[in-house]
Amino acid sequence: MIQIIPKPTADLVESYQRHCVKNNLTLVGYFSVLAIIVFGLHLIHHLRLGMEIFSASMILYTLLYSFNIIYAVINLLILPKMRDVAALQWLTVVVEMAYPFFMALVFTLLGVIGVTQEGGPVPFVIGMFVISVMLQGHYLALLVLLASCWTLFSLGVFYNVPLQQATSPIMICFTVVLASAVIARLTEKSRVELFLTIEELRKKNQLLIEMSNIDPLTGIYNRKHFLQFLDSEITRARRYNRPMGLLLINVDDLKQINETLGHDVGDQVLVEVANLIKSHQRENDVISRYNSGEFNVLLLETDAAQSIEVAKRIRTIIESHDFSYVGKSVTVSIGHTQYRQQQANKFIESAEKILLESKGLGKNRVTSDSV
Ligand SMILES: Nc1nc2c(ncn2[C@@H]2O[C@H](COP(=O)(O)OP(=O)(O)OP(=O)(O)O)[C@@H](O)[C@H]2O)c(=O)[nH]1
User: Fold this and answer.
1) Mutate to test the pocket of ligand 1, among 217, 248, 251, 258 (most ligand atoms within 8 A of CB)
2) Alpha-carbon gap, residue 160 to 333, rounded angstroms
3) Contact by Cβ (8 Å): 115, 143
4) Going by CA atoms, what residue is nearest to atom 6 of ligand 1?
5) For ligand 1, is residue 253 a contact (CB within 6 Å)?
6) Fewer CB under 10 Å: which end of the chain, C or N?
7) Whose CA is closest to atom 11 on ligand 1?
8) Which is the closest atom of ligand 1 to the Cα of 259?
9) Average pLDDT over every residue of 177-206
10) How far is the centre of ligand 1, averaged over its atoms, from the C-alpha of 280 (Å)?
11) What region does 150 belong to: left with phi over 0, alpha with psi -120 to 50, or beta?
């Protein structure tokens, strides 16, 4: 069977949790604003009906709404502005966990009051569904909370209501708690699967992008990447008038190596030459395989004298390297040019022209159009 969804690794799980925290905080923030509006309407409703506003349930509602105001301020005004990462993480955990716990407690008490005053367990039912949405990504915490709320609710109802009247709301609320847990689990599972699939696709996409820029034989950048990179560097060099050199490096007599020793040996020579150039690369050099037997080095922030210096060093390193399996030393011809505010293709053409000159002059040499 093909496994489409990989087993989540620790970093994926962590990343998923971070994703949940972000979502939950936004949810908590907007839920708080909604609760404040509802509280206003609730209060107006009570006043218009001339109802007692200091009853036990009203005090609980007031407490619930006051907490919402504090949470709305923390979530929407304080957290987004915090710069201290450690403090932010700490406060985020407190807010994310404390809020549903507090809500659950208040809703449980409202549920008990509701049943005691024959209003029914509606607040408890609503509360449990709300916290199962809020605690997405923390299933264990949700289970603990649901179980504690139900136990608290049952004890409260038993204590205040005769057994006959208590059984029905307790059973209803048990079903609600069970349903909330199952729904939360199912939604979380599908969210995790979707998240992991997207994450996996994102990684594969990244890998494809990287692979499309890499030469499979030598593992260095390919021509496509070089041309893209050159475009952006030309814009920069023009804008800030920065010096930039280009070396075109061609392996001498590669055709002959291929013909006498085989294509595999030719491949090995190319890999080794690429590694030699790479191992002596400076921080600002960008190396790529430009053509079959040809490499180039783009030398950023480098003037003509420094570029020629680099070219000479590369030539010497390759000439003195031990290529004993070829039976003779492997050499390269290098053409050097400096950027002169021209178009990218003209810049490359200059390097190609000077490389041809290098070859014509007898190979294994550095030729420059800047001296
Ligand atoms: N082994 C190997 N050979 C390649 C590869 N790509 C191209 N070639 C061969 O490399 C040779 C390059 O030849 P050229 O650069 O034209 O000529 P050369 O023999 O190097 O001669 P000069 O450039 O004049 O020194 C050709 O025979 C290509 O077939 C590759 O990936 N691996």
Assistant:
1) 258
2) 96
3) no
4) 292
5) yes
6) N
7) 255
8) 27
9) 85
10) 23
11) alpha
User: Can you give the residue ranges of every domain in the chain?
Assistant: 10-209, 223-368
Q: Is the CB of 291 under 6 A from ligand 1?
A: no
User: What distance in Å separates the CA atoms of residue 32 and residue 19, rounded to the nearest whole number?
Assistant: 20
Task: Read off the pLDDT of each residue in 337-343 and give the average, rounded to a whole number.
Answer: 93
pLDDT top residue among 82 and 345: 345
Report residue 346's pLDDT band, with 50, 70 and 90 as the boundaries: very high
Rounded distance between C-alpha atoms, residue 163 and residue 200, angstroms: 54
Q: How confident is the model over 24-75, as pLDDT tens digits?
A: 667 767 777 787 788 788 788 878 877 776 777 777 777 877 877 787 777 7
Mean pLDDT (whole number) for 241-250:
94
Give CA–CA dist 76/34, Å, rounded: 13
Among 85-89, 157-161, 297-301, the range of highest mean pLDDT: 297-301
- Going from the Cα of 284 to the center of ligand 1, the distance in angstroms, rounded, reads 28
pTM for the model stands at: 0.57
> Which residue type is seen at 40?
G
CA 371 to centroid of ligand 1, rounded, Å? 29
Distance 247 CA to ligand 1 centre (A): 18
Q: For residue 5, give Cα distances in angstroms to 182, 189, 198, 199, 341.
A: 22, 12, 10, 10, 51
Contact by Cβ (8 Å): 297, 249: yes
Predicted local confidence at residue 86, as pLDDT: 73
Going by alpha carbons, the residue nearest to atom 32 of ligand 1 is 267
Q: Is the dihedral of CA 308, 314, 318, 321 positive or negative?
A: positive
What does the mean pLDDT of the chain come to?
Answer: 85
Evaluate if residue 371 carries a pLDDT over 80: no
The answer to whether ipTM exceeds 0.90 is yes
Give the position, in ligand 1's atom list, of the atom nearest the Cα of 269: 1
Give residue for tokens 């920069």.
236
- Give the residue with greater pLDDT, 8 vs 290: 290
Question: Does ligand 1 lie within 6 Å of residue 114's CB atom?
Answer: no
CATH for 223-368 (3.30.70.270, 3.90.226.10, 1.10.3210.10, 3.40.50.2000): 3.30.70.270
* Amino acid type, 103: M
